[in-house]
Amino acid sequence: MNVDAVQTALSTEHAALWTYGMVAAFLGNQAAAVAEGSNAHRARRDTTERWLRDQNATPNPPAAAYLPPSPVSDGPSALAALVAVEQDTCAAWRGVLERTDDAALRTTALEALTTAAVRATRWRKAAGTTPASIAMPGVASG
């Protein structure tokens, strides 16, 4: 169902916002890119909540906190957290794409998937990870 998939995507937007806020202290040298990512996820969250309300659904609220895949204690671990949250966002929006025929929602989901993939690539590049980009964003590898 579209609403369930969009609720899942909204949850990843909440997690992304929380993560960007958490890692900001460790990435002062990349403050502009962190702010851009945070602002993009905030805008996507707001748009997603509006879409859900338009469908007569109540948007799921954010959790009090989120657990990154590994502890964040320095720049490299902060970058890894950002890559992980962008990958999760890609997967969630890909899930929306796979579950709807609604043209406007597909456009929104594709844009969200694409921008999250670009941000994930930026963070992989900043971390020195190779390859910096992946072939199928939003698809589990291996």
From TrEMBL:
Domain DUF4439: 5-140
Highest taxon of source: Bacteria
CDD domains found in the cross-reference section: Ferritin_like (cd00657)
Protein name: Uncharacterized protein DUF4439
Species this chain originates from: Lentzea atacamensis
